[in-house]
Structures are given as structure tokens and as C-alpha cells.
Amino acid sequence: MQIVRFTSPLTGADAVGIDDGEQVVELSGITTVGELLRLSSDELRDRCAGADGPAHPSGSVRRLAPVDGLMEVWAAGVTYRRSREARVIESERAADVYELVYDAERPELFFKSVAWKVSGDGDRIAVRADSEIDVPEPELGLVLNSAGEIAGYTVVDDVSSRTIEGVNPLYLPQAKIYLGACAVGPAIRPVWEVADPYALDITLTITRAGETVWDGKSSTSELNRRLDDLAGYLFRADTFPDGAVLATGTSLVPDLPFTLGDGDTVTIGIAEVGTLTTTVVRGLDAMRSQA
Ligand code: DO4
Ligand code: MG
């Protein structure tokens, strides 16, 4: 079962429903994911089990990023050994900060996106025109309700400029927060359907003109943090009335000097959670021209 956000073929309005692989059944009375995330996880489970709105064949609905309303996307950094290594290599003069945060009790958490800027499955992502080395970061996303409970999981791409991040860690917001830098989707896999979130394979495939130019595989078993702990830090001193998505860090980083290019297709798969596919454009004008 997946919780999907989509455009209702009946009304043309945004809707939220339950996809069992054959059909999507609308959750009547609920029009946003944010509304669902105001419920406790027990209430959410009951609500999903009782879906009784209009039904549509699964393949017939266009899925939207499962992030809306007042939801925010946040991300954790340097939570896998591979990410720590990559940061140390790209930022010689500030390597220490990454070594220190990997082992520190307090995780690195940073703001990633407001809901309306998030790309969904089948959408575009962007690399900055003022950056030379850019990568996707495939990450398990925690979908957190307004009480900070893990309600489900999704796939997040924390698209990043390694050029800008590598010059100075204080440039991190510019390396990571810009139009086209965040993709989430294709849906939300409810928490009660994933037996062990610490044993999920993550794959990343980048294709260019039909050829694979980079691919890799890892697992959430390599995560150096506990998921509840990451969520707990996010909610320690902040409030999320419509819930939030928290990306849990990348374990796949292509070696330098690999970079994403205009027209590349990025496919991220997380076992039991879903597959998120996007196409890369270069620069703000190309990203803005999206219909
Ligand atoms: O500190 C830089 C951010 C690292 C990151 O985004 C990650 O590890 O996924
Ligand atoms: Mg990341």
C-alpha cells in the first residue's frame, strides 16, 4: 500500500488516496498530505484502512510529490561513512568539520525545501549554472507527522553542488537550496508496512543519451544514526503543523570529477519504498520553463 498525492481525474483538483497497486482509492474529506499528517500514526492507519472515496486505475493517475501545505523538507548530513569520505575529499581546508559531525552526538540537520518547490516523480531537477560538479543524493526520507512520529517513508533526492559546498561549508545553503534541488516521491510507504527500515537496499542509476554513466548500490544498514534520533532532533525546538519530510543522508556519492549533465535521467530506488525518476536541467531559466 502507498499513500499517493495526485490530480483527481474527476475534479482536476489535488487529491490524496491509497494505491494498492491496482487502483487508487481517494480518501474522502482529505485533500492534502499535510491534513493526514495532523493525525497520530494509529489514526492514520485507521484512516488508510477505511479509504472509501472514488477509485481510479493505478496507472491512470499522475502522481505529485507527496509534500504539500505547510510541510517542509529537511535533511541530515554525513550520516554514512561514504558521505564523510566524500566531504573530506572535496573540502580539504574544512575536512575536520565533517569528521567531527559524523561522530558527534548531535547530527547535522539542515533545511532543504518548502513544499511548493519540491519536484515529484517524472519531474525535472536542476543543477546550478554557477557550479561545475553536481550530484544527486539518494536518501531514505522519513515522513513525520505533526507529533514527530514516523508515519512512513519516501525517496528523497538531495541534489547538491559539490563545487560550492567544497569551497566553504558556510556555502552549504547555496549548494543545497535552490529551485530544482529537491525531489521527493513517488509516494509514501506507511511505516507499518516496512518491517526493518535499517535493511533497505538503495540504488542510484544515472543515464545519459540512453547509456548508464554511473550506478551504485548501498543499504540503510550502513547508517550511522538511529532514525528516531534524527526525527527527535528535528522536533526538539521547532513545530511542523502539517508534518515534515526528513532525508536521512546519502550513502552513494560518485567519485570526482563525475557530474550530472543537462538531460541526464536520475533513477533512485529504495526497496519497499519506491522508485523516483527525474530529468536534469541546467540553470534557473530551464527549471523555471517547466509547464
Ligand atoms: O554536510 C554536508 C551535507 C552532506 C549530505 O547532504 C549528506 O551526507 O547526505
Ligand atoms: Mg544529502
Automatic annotation (TrEMBL):
InterPro entries, alphabetized: FAH, Fumarylacetoacetase-like_C, Fumarylacetoacetase_C_sf
Gene3D superfamilies: Fumarylacetoacetase-like, C-terminal domain (3.90.850.10)
MF-aspect GO terms: hydrolase activity; metal ion binding
Domain Fumarylacetoacetase-like C-terminal: residue ranges: 105-281
Keywords: Hydrolase, Metal-binding
Keyword hit for Metal-binding: yes
GO biological process, one term: small molecule metabolic process
Protein family (similarity comment): Belongs to the FAH family.
PANTHER family per record: 2-DEHYDRO-3-DEOXY-D-ARABINONATE DEHYDRATASE (PTHR42796:SF7), FUMARYLACETOACETATE HYDROLASE DOMAIN-CONTAINING PROTEIN 2A-RELATED (PTHR42796)
Protein name: Fumarylacetoacetate hydrolase family protein
